[in-house]
Design a protein that fits this description.
The complex is a heterodimer of chains A (121) and B (279). Chain A has 121 residues and is α/β, with parallel strands linked by helices. Chain A is built from 5 helices and 5 strands. Chain A has helices at 11-23, 34-43, 60-69, 87-95, 108-117, and strands spanning 2-7, 26-31, 48-51, 77-82, 100-103. Classes of the chains: A alpha/beta (121), B alpha/beta (279).
Chain lengths: 121, 279
């Protein structure tokens, strides 16, 4: 079973996204900010990361840049999932190493479609 | 909804669009007609049918029939089929083309995503033999509203996130201030949309190298399926390809088409039938 780490400072978003991702046959773990997520990744790299942008302590973009510098940090498929919906943010995320980008609000079809785009399902 | 209301609406759909609406799908009618009902200030479908009968108006009837036949589509819904068209069918047709001009008809295109998906995929073929081809895509649908949406190429937040990768979205669309996304001007160059009813002749549209008719025929009554396939077949150039969605069967609908020997999954006009009919 593939493992997805959901990184978002909103517990509600983590819960909703977690249910959707579990329905896609992933095991799920959660982190409330980039620093927590990085700590988890250093212990065990997930197959996929669903990543919010604006979070306390370490935001999604800072986390992604740090992740890609880690040993095996290029392995996880990173899908941003954020309210930052303008072209500049999307471009910045892709340049930093994001594989896909979900604009909030999202639904189950969007997550499934985006995971399919990057070969996760 | 009264039973007589369902009967009136299903009769209207069958007569004007060939669509067969099973009684088990009656629940769909409210949703499909909600926009018209709201606009006309009609509280129920019973009121809508009363209005149709009290003020007979062919345009209004057509609008209701089109709304009843509406289908929800998404970008790259028939992804494998689009790949087959781009990597096999079009190169094959290009070999046979004298002037490098190829035409594709997306029949029953609803709000246009299939046609735009093809245009997007073709724009990615810059290095292939197709780059030298002049390829026109024509999308048609029964619904004037759907065709207007398709022409404008404006899609909402949820639409552009289903079937489109972020790369394709960023490359082929521009974001508007209200959060909608509009297809790039460059893609509009070879894509046209027109209203057309598959039960009518399509002679005005001209002849095509490839016709796609996805998720349309299955909703039609058998006699309308036959009529639609004959309409489509009549616009196929010699050895040109007709495709339905991968899970739709074209076999047995009409003898005017037969499976293509050159391309698996495609159909072509059966010229022997034409000769027999002409003899």
């Amino acid at each position: 079973m593939k493992h997805c780490l959901i990184v978002d400072d909103s517990r509600v978003v983590r819960t909703v996204a977690g249910r959707i991702v579990k329905d896609l046959s992933f095991s799920v773990s959660e982190a409330a900010d980039g620093a927590q997520a990085l700590e988890q990744c250093r212990k065990e790299m997930p197959d996929a990361i669903l990543l919010d942008w604006n979070m306390p302590v370490m935001n999604g973009l800072e986390f992604l840049r740090a992740l890609r510098r880690e040993e095996n940090g290029s392995d996880p498929v990173v899908v941003f999932c954020t309210n930052e919906n303008d072209s500049e943010h999307i471009g910045e995320a892709i340049r930093a190493g994001a594989n896909e980008y979900i604009m909030k609000p999202f639904d189950a079809d969007i997550i499934e479609s985006k995971f399919a785009e990057v070969g996760l399902v | 909804m009264q039973e007589s209301t369902f009967n009136e609406l299903s009769d209207l759909a069958l007569r004007l669009s060939g669509q067969h609406i099973a009684a088990s799908k009656a629940y769909l009618l409210e949703a499909r007609l909600s926009t018209i009902s709201r606009r006309e200030n009609l509280a129920t479908l019973d009121d809508l049918v009363h209005c149709l009968k009290a003020r007979p108006n062919p345009r209004f009837e057509q609008e209701v029939a089109a709304a009843l036949s509406s289908k929800k589509t998404s970008f790259f819904e028939a992804r494998d089929l689009i790949e087959k068209v781009v990597t096999q069918a079009l190169p094959e047709r290009l070999k046979q083309s004298k002037n490098g001009r190829l035409r594709i008809w997306c029949a029953g295109v609803s709000t246009g995503q299939e046609a735009w998906s093809l245009a997007i995929r073709l724009s990615e073929e810059m290095g292939s033999t197709l780059a030298r081809a002049d390829i026109e895509i024509v999308g048609t649908d029964l619904s004037t509203d759907c065709i207007e949406t398709a022409k404008q190429g404006v899609y909402g937040h949820f639409d552009v996130q289903k079937g489109l990768s972020i790369h394709r979205l960023m490359t082929n669309f521009n974001r508007r201030d209200n959060g909608d996304w509009v297809v790039n001007e460059a893609l509009h160059k070879n894509v046209n949309f027109r209203r057309h009813n598959l039960l009518d002749s399509a002679r005005d549209l001209g002849a095509f190298d490839i016709i796609l008719c996805c998720n349309v025929l299955g909703a039609l009554a058998p006699s309308a399926q036959r009529q639609a396939v004959e309409t489509l077949s009549a616009q196929l150039l010699p050895d040109a390809y007709l495709f339905a969605a991968p899970d739709e069967a074209l076999e047995g609908i009409s003898s005017v088409i037969k499976p293509s020997r050159a391309l698996r999954g495609a159909f072509e006009r059966d010229t022997t039938v034409k000769k027999t009919a002409a003899a």
